[in-house]
Amino acid sequence: MRKETASGKHFETVLPAGYREVYCIDAQKAKTGVIMNVVAAGVIALILLVSVCIIRPEGFFDNYSLLRNWALVVALVAYIVLHEVTHGVAYKCLTGRKLTFGLTLTVAYCGVPDVYVYRRAALISLLAPFVLFFPVFLLPALLLRDAWDQIYAAALFALHVGGCVGDLYGAFLYCFRFRDPSTLMQDTGPKQTFYQKG
Question: Could you tell me the pLDDT band of residue 172, with boundaries at 50, 70 and 90?
């Protein structure tokens, strides 16, 4: 019924007796989706504002290229796919179970709906894209020489951090509210439900 590894169990196939639902994040609910997207937009705007203030481009519009806009769109679409695949790789390594992927009006997602994952496995899966792509987007923003290249790299970095708002919120809950290692989470993709004993 559960997978055992050298570091302990990562998931349960059925909710153990004595567990009850204590919290739910459902990105498909209008209110939750709006709040998450507003917070993400605020994070993105703040990072872009700080980036422009730091970069302070001179002759900014002299070196503008429409090609960069298309490159940004392609990079963003590729990143969204890679972000969800990163969740999936983490979940697959920890559970070996079938994954679900999807896209709604409010969220792109990856989930592992047929199991209940323990706190450690959930944290690894939630934070994997944030940790992996943080340096991938930050370093070019810091190291590129052309102001437009820096701004576009900063935009990708901002979109990355903003796109991780839901994942970071789930990790925040695990770090500060649901600290018990026995806490379980069922992740269907757009919906994460937390369970604790009692």
Answer: very high
- The pair of structure tokens assigned to 47 is 């990072």
Instruction: Write down the residue that tokens 């979940």 correspond to.
Output: 91
Q: How far apart are CA 185 and CA 187, in angstroms?
A: 6
Retrieve residue 82's tokens: 């890679």
Secondary structure (DSSP) of 12-72: ESSPPTTEEEEEEEETTSHHHHHHHHHHHHHHHHHHHHHHHHHH--SSGGGG--HHHHHHH
Question: Cα(100)–Cα(55) distance, rounded to whole angstroms?
Answer: 40
Please give the average per-residue pLDDT across 123-138, as a whole number: 96
- Give CA–CA dist 35/25, Å, rounded: 11
Q: Give the sign of the dihedral formed by CA 39, CA 41, CA 44, CA 46.
A: negative
Residue 39 CA to residue 93 CA, distance in Å, equals: 31
Confidence (pLDDT) at 5: 36
More confident residue, 12 or 7: 12
Burial class, 62, CB count within 10 angstroms (exposed 0-12 / middle 13-18 / buried 19+): exposed
Question: What does the DSSP 8-state code read for residue 111?
Answer: E
Q: Which amino acid, residue 78?
A: A
Contact 96/9 with Cβ under 8 angstroms? no
